[in-house]
Structure formats: C-alpha cells, structure tokens
C-alpha cells in the first residue's frame, strides 16, 4: 500500500487502454489480427513496468530524486497581489514532465492553481504566481503536490512537500510601503497625491544629512559639503528641518452595519483599515502622532496617538485583530469616548458611510459635538456600482425607473457633503478604490493650510 499510494495513472495510459480495447474488438471480428494484438499488449505491459521502475528507482547518492519548495511570505497583505514562488529541482537522470497542484487556503475559493513544467536532469526551476486575499485572519496552506512523469508518460509519481503552513493576512502593508517609498522620494504624485504648496516654512533645525533625490536644493549646506568633499569625495550635504508642532491624528473606524458592503471583494471596513494604516504611517513620517479608535454598537479598541519607534507595529497588530458583527453603530458612545480620552485638539478622520441624508441627520448632533473640540474629517463612500448603472443608457421602462432611483441616491450623497460643510465639518466622498489616495491628499492639504 505504501508503494501504491504515490502511484497515479497518466492520461496517456487511459487512452492507450481504450485503443487496445478497440483492437481486441477488431481482432474478434478478424481472428488473424489476434496474435499481433497480443504481442502489442505484452509490449505495452512491459512499457508500464519500465515506466514504474524509472519513476520509483532509488538514487545512488541517497538524495531525493525530486524536490519542491513553496516560498510564501510570513504574512500576506490584504487586498494586494502577493507573490508566491514554487521551486522545483530534478535529480532524475532523465528529463521529466511535472504537474504541480498547490493546495492554497480555502478562503481563495480557487481550484485552478495547476502548473506544468518540463525539467532536464539537475535542472532547477521557479514558478511564480500571485494570490490576492480579501479578508484578514489566518490562512492555512496545504501540501505542494507534484506529479512526475518519465519520458514514457504512462504513470505518475506523486511527491508532497510543504505540508501545513499557517500564514497571517494583515492589513495592506504592501500599500503602506509603496506610499512610504514614494513619499521619501517625493513621487507621491505618481499614485494620485497632489503637490500642495505649503504656507510658511518651519526653520527648526534637526540635522545635517546627505542629499537625496527630491530634497530642496535651497537647503544645501555648502560648508558641510566642502568638509565632506575633502575627506570622502564630492557629496552634497543639506540641512534637514522638522515641523514645529507634532499634532495628534486619530483614525476613527466605524465597524457597524454600514461598513459591510463589498466592493471588488473587499468590505468597506477593510478599505478603511487599509487606508488607516497608510495614513498613520504618513502622519508619523510628517512628525505627527497617529492613533486608532474603533467602534460599532460600542467603543472597541483605543490606541493613543504616538510617533515613537515601534508604534506602527502596534497599529498594524491592532488593525489586524479587528472583528465585528456589523451591528448598528452608536455615535453617542463614540463621542463620549473621544471626550473622555482625547483631551488635546486633534485631527479626527471618521471612516463611515451614509447612504441617505436622513441617515446622516441621525448622527449629525454627535458629529457637530466632535467638530466643536477637534478638526473632524468625515470620509464616506460613493457607490461605484450605482455609478456604473447611471452611466449606461436606459433602453426600457424598468431601466429608466432604476436610473431615476439611482440618481436620487447619488444626489443625496452630494447633499450630505454640502450639509456637513454648512456646519464646518470637512468631508470626503470617494470611491473605495481611491480611498487611500484621497485621504492622504486631504491630510496633506489640511496640514499645508495650517489647520492642524
């Protein structure tokens, strides 16, 4: 049984058996063909035996005849395409054809992770593919199943590697690193971040450091450059300055019913969590302090604003562990918690969603109280599927009715923005896919205007 367990029959063998059945049927009608068919069948059985011997022969140097390994990161980024690699090594003395089936976690609901490759003796090959998770949590990978065929190709031998690997899916840290890298090189405009002219300039000296691409040439320190050039070659040195004030920036994340809607397989809650991670990292880079507060039918976790080393790791872990039952959100509890725990005037970025003006009016008293003590920025979502419906021409009465209702909902979204502005409340109405870029843009705008 141990020998038979990794043994599988190839498609070529099944077709060959069907051909022999037809030949034996023909030999029954024409008896003169029967001895020839018997001889061919005996040779065919001998080929099967040789194929089995080639696949299950032992290596003289006591090494495995075939090896495979899956290279998967210790954690995956939610909502992003994460690269994975399968490495194959052939130690057979002949060329083999390989079929690889990777047992990916059930959360992906995919049954098409099948690859084929041909490897020469002593050849190593890497197969790369991508997975895009849409939920946070733990994902369990199964085995890497490799089915090896010899040049005869009648039988397969299965090898299994990398059994039982658990990987955590965190909020979009790949997106966070992308924004961090582009911010460091002054290339945020490549992903939709606008260049905003800053009013005034802080002149609080921080350090002298080497020039990097994107730095202001007006801050070149020529004396330090000349000293550095004498001893270590020509290297431009600049004066680095820091902002005079470090302001608290809090992301208030609504985990209630309105954040359950899915867009491109991610819920609005996960879009908000990913944007909060990126914004917190940008705020810390801008010398501000970042904090997180979550709520639904009650107030969840509160992470006080800070910018010390290791604080981003705390934010990442807090956002990763967010769970919710998508109950009705309690804004009164939110206001009470903010009043109790956030004493200093701060920038509050409220990630929520309002579908109608009446829904916003129910929460407006609490929003006005928050805006009285802090700078409040309400971020809610445009229904992109509704926008697709409105962009299509109507061809019958039913579609005209649907477009009319859709126009009403779209108008109410714009009306919410206007009503919030009447009470001095900043707001962003954005499509889910543009949430991060629009939020960072607004934060940089408020900072450049000196509002925080």
UniProtKB/TrEMBL annotation:
Pfam families documented for this protein: DUF58
Keyword Secreted: no
Domain DUF58: 207-378
Domain of life from the UniProt record: Bacteria
Protein name: DUF58 domain-containing protein
Alphabetic keyword roster: Membrane, Transmembrane, Transmembrane helix
Organism from which the protein derives: Spirosoma terrae
UniProt cross-references to InterPro entries, sorted A to Z: DUF58, vWFA_dom_sf
Entry keyword annotation includes Transmembrane helix: yes
PANTHER family given in the database record: BLL2464 PROTEIN, SLR2013 PROTEIN
Membrane-crossing segments per the record: 12-30, 36-56
